[in-house]
Design goal:
217 residues, alpha+beta, 6-stranded antiparallel beta sheet, 4-stranded antiparallel beta sheet
Length: 217
């Protein structure tokens, strides 16, 4: 019931589009936007192409839905776009897309396909060609993020507890870890790469990807 309430609430945020054409996705757009597509039958049974354009540096978090290449609607993420036979759910994170699924009224949900020129599509092609290496990379990304969480969070809490108000009203905390600056920097950079890997494969977990809470939707 909670999930259904969230979907209805998100659907109410959808605004009508202006009919502008979808800008073609190019390889050099990978750092600034991504696009996903899905073909769905309309009420007459004719196949229609729905596309979702996600700009990465839109401060308002707007994502747009296109119907056969024309902007049909837009909303702030997380967004739920009503489409024939169900809804398209869109959720973003700090590092990209966390969810991009068609949820039918009846049947199993399925992920939209990334545009061939997108970074997500390139990552999917790598997975298809090198499945073992792909799984290893995914596992390493999880380990890196969890290690960063275990080692970094206590140090962050220690620094936070040193603030005057926190120290006087809550108390101080001493981290069990005291890593050198170079190692903290290395963990931070590795964490960014790991988070990007997770975003390219649309994987998101409340604990593993905890850092995406802060700047995502």
């Amino acid at each position: 019931m909670l999930e259904e309430w969230r979907r209805r609430r998100a659907a109410k945020k959808v605004k009508p589009g202006d009919g502008k054409p979808l800008k073609p996705m190019r390889a050099w757009h990978a750092l600034s936007r991504t696009v996903f597509h899905i073909d769905l039958p309309d009420d007459d049974g004719a196949s229609r192409t729905f596309s979702v354009d996600v700009p990465f540096f839109n401060l308002e978090g707007r994502v747009s839905l296109y119907l056969d290449g024309r902007r049909e609607a837009w909303a702030e993420a997380p967004a739920v776009f009503p489409v024939p036979g169900g809804v398209i759910e869109v959720k973003t994170s700090t590092f990209g897309v966390a969810r991009m699924h068609f949820v039918p009224d009846v049947g199993e949900e399925r992920q939209l396909l990334p545009d061939r020129a997108s970074a997500e599509a390139a990552r999917a092609r790598f997975d298809a060609r090198h499945p073992v290496a792909s799984r290893v990379i995914g596992a390493v990304a999880v380990v890196v993020l969890l290690a960063g969480l275990v080692l970094g969070l206590p140090q962050f809490l220690e620094q936070l507890s040193e603030l005057t108000w926190v120290a006087e009203n809550i108390g101080t905390f001493t981290s069990p870890f005291a890593l050198p600056a170079w190692l903290n920097t290395a963990l931070f950079v590795a964490g960014l790469v790991a988070a990007l890997e997770r975003a390219l494969t649309l994987r998101n977990h409340w604990l593993i990807d905890m850092d995406t809470w802060f700047l995502g939707d």
